[in-house]
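Researcher: Checking consistency across runs. Here is OB-fold domain-containing protein again:
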Amino acid sequence: MSIESTESTAERYERLLPEITPENKPYWDGLAQNELRLQCCDECGEYRFPESEVCPRCLSASFSWRAVSGKGRLWSWIRMHQRYLSAFDEVSPYLVAYVKLDEGPPVISTLVDEPDELAFDVPVRAVFQPGFSERPILKFAVEHPDPAA
């Protein structure tokens, strides 16, 4: 009997998540509070994701973690039908989205509540949902225009 067959879906999924380290803990703490936090360079104001020791723009090592809007635009997507990892059996097919955040950095995640049609540059917003485990995961939802506006 393989190890995979004795593990629950939550256990298999949990193994796929990045380790929480002192360097990325502010990001995960933000998700737990329904807030997207990114590193921001204290010298040039460049936001970055994922975290890094120095700013890719000016090479400064000075940064702070800041809450951002969580809004962005759908830049690309792919619908995954192929099962590569058994941890995703219950969510197949799923939509992988490449989102360009309004603050600048791109983020790869999944799209929830997928509309009938997708298009390049559709506005999206961050949503915070627990995965199979209790750890919140950053996902995105299509922003629908406010009919009252």
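Researcher: Does this match what you'd expect to see?
Model: One thing to look at in this run: The chain has one domain: 3-142.
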